What does this fold into?
Amino acid sequence: MNTRRIVTLLLALPVGAMLSAQVLTAQVAKPAGMKVQTVTLTFDDKGYVVTPATVTKGVPVKMEVDLDTVKGCMRTVVINAFDVKKTVKAGETTIEFTPTKSGKIDIICGMNIGKGSFTVVEPK
Ligand SMILES: [Cu+2]
It folds into this structure.
């Protein structure tokens, strides 16, 4: 092995180590437990509609409220099972919570007039 080859090897090693470190960091930054389930909340002639209607217990939910169909007092969204009570408005249409129990979960409006539900299932 001549000197030039040794120098090349020494230069290549740190670069390889840096690339490996970056790959490892990228994997660590996205652990499985940090995933989020996104659903939309709309309102039809029967009441609140959650799409998809089923979420998994223990995984944070981001509920995007559709202001085109959810109007008036229906914009105060109450999910008593998870201590959620939030009034949405333009620019603030996301409701975040983590389902802590499974089963049929009721949604009501702040005046207890609008109603709907979704289902929480145990993780697989
Ligand atoms: Cu209402």
Remarks:
- Residues 33-121 form a domain with the Immunoglobulin-like fold (CATH 2.60.40.420).
- The CA atoms of residues 94 and 110 lie 17 Å apart.
- The chain has one helix and eight strands.
